[in-house]
Design goal:
This protein is α/β, with parallel strands linked by helices and 145 residues long. It is built from four helices and six strands. α1 packs across α4.
Length: 145
């Protein structure tokens, strides 16, 4: 199963989660930052995972631009999952579900519930156990493929 994990990361926390997800899925998984993403990266993939931090109650601007450009360009029913990183607050916005909506609109098919990962404060670091949670989530997604 060829997997592409696309992420945006302001302070490195989201990238750490993306790398752990890719590692847990296996050698067929590749991580690309949104700023380096090219449509050609989608060639031959079976699973697309998108992640970013919540900024201003939603996905990052770079992530939104990439997802807007994918509308109508995903192979039919390409399987996807999404995640975000966020601070632990009662109210915090949501990036993972907005990304999922945009990927569905682009033609994708969600294979697993979106996941949130928590950082301490605006810049992190990740809370203890979040990398292990990412590994477990990735293994669950892999088992559904």
């Amino acid at each position: 199963m060829k997997t592409l994990v696309v992420c945006d990361s302001n302070y490195g926390n989201t990238k750490l989660i993306a790398l752990e997800i890719a590692k847990s899925i296996g050698e067929s998984a590749k991580v690309v930052l949104t700023k380096n993403f090219k449509e050609a990266d989608l060639n031959g993939i079976d699973l697309l995972i998108f992640g970013c931090p919540i900024i201003g109650w939603r996905p990052t601007e770079t992530t939104l631009k990439v997802l807007e450009n994918l509308k109508g360009k995903l192979k039919k029913d390409l399987k996807f999952a999404t995640f975000d990183t966020r601070v632990k607050l009662f109210i915090h916005g949501d990036a993972k579900e907005k990304m999922a909506e945009m990927l569905r609109a682009a033609g994708g098919k969600r294979v697993f519930e979106s996941q949130a990962f928590y950082v301490k404060g605006k810049e992190g670091p990740l809370f203890p156990g979040e990398l292990e949670k990412a590994a477990s989530w990735a293994k669950l997604i892999k088992s559904k493929m």
